[in-house]
Task: inverse folding
């Protein structure tokens, strides 16, 4: 691609805008050929400025839960990249790198609950040490350019075809769970809801019976399928070994990503 073609793909060509390259853990293998993310291992992002901080402080965006999506849209320089089609792992990797180059690697986390003594504690996480899982050659999709993978359920011996969750999937799942909470209906079922959105096809099962099958699937098959999905899903592994100051117990904890992720203290 020529310099002129590259320049035309960016809506901002202001030389004063500082930018960096953020890695794409999927290596672009799950995006169709017509996508600007196809086979891309990195994407150009601008370094956060006061303009992006305004986005993170926008009450309307915070209330709607779209502040992080708006932030991504602002920092990604390639405006042909579609955020809805981006898989969650790639999105989280770009958010992580945006945070690091914007505010540094130190991240103070509040209200962690010790799994040993049950007391709350605070910790400082070095985001620069977070490991990134990439989609390697052994976990390629069925066909490059298609977000589609397969797994054989060990007990039922049925093939299941699934895709890696996209930003659009994540938004739809969150909307379903929020609607259930607001309506006072039964508590959300995150496992079956996520699998319903992630599974594209089950051997010998019609689409109209998919949810019924998922709900009745043995716990063993469900767990093995979820383990397989987790093991190949590219993106930051948001876990870090931390020590509780109350009892000195050390173990791995999940490092949360939320809007507070971008407000260092």
Result:
């Amino acid at each position: 691609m020529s310099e002129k073609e590259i320049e035309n793909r960016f809506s901002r060509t202001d030389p004063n805008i500082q930018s960096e390259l953020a890695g794409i853990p999927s290596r672009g293998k799950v995006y169709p050929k017509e996508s600007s993310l196809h086979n891309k291992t990195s994407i150009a992002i601008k370094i956060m400025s006061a303009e992006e901080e305004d986005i993170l402080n926008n009450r309307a965006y915070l209330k709607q839960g779209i502040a992080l999506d708006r932030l991504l849209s602002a920092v990604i320089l390639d405006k042909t990249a579609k955020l809805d089609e981006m898989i969650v792992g790639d999105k989280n990797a770009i958010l992580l790198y945006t945070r690091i180059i914007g505010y540094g690697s130190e991240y103070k986390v509040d209200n962690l609950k010790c799994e040993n003594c049950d007391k709350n504690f605070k910790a400082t996480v070095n985001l620069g040490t977070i490991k990134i899982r990439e989609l390697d050659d052994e976990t390629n999709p069925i066909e490059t350019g298609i977000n589609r993978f397969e797994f054989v359920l060990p007990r039922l011996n049925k093939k299941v075809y699934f895709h890696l969750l996209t930003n659009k999937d994540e938004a739809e799942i969150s909307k379903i769970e929020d609607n259930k909470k607001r309506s006072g209906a039964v508590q959300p079922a995150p496992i079956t809801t996520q699998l319903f959105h992630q599974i594209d096809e089950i051997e010998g099962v019609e689409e109209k019976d998919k949810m019924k099958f998922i709900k009745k699937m043995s716990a063993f098959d469900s767990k093995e399928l979820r383990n397989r999905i987790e093991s190949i899903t590219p993106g930051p592994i948001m876990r870090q070994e931390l020590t509780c100051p109350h009892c000195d117990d050390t173990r791995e904890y999940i490092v949360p990503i939320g809007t507070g992720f971008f407000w260092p203290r």
User: Anything to note?
Assistant: The two ends are 42 Å apart (CA to CA). The chain has two domains: 3-134+235-262, 137-232. The longest strand covers residues 106-113. The mean pLDDT is 86.
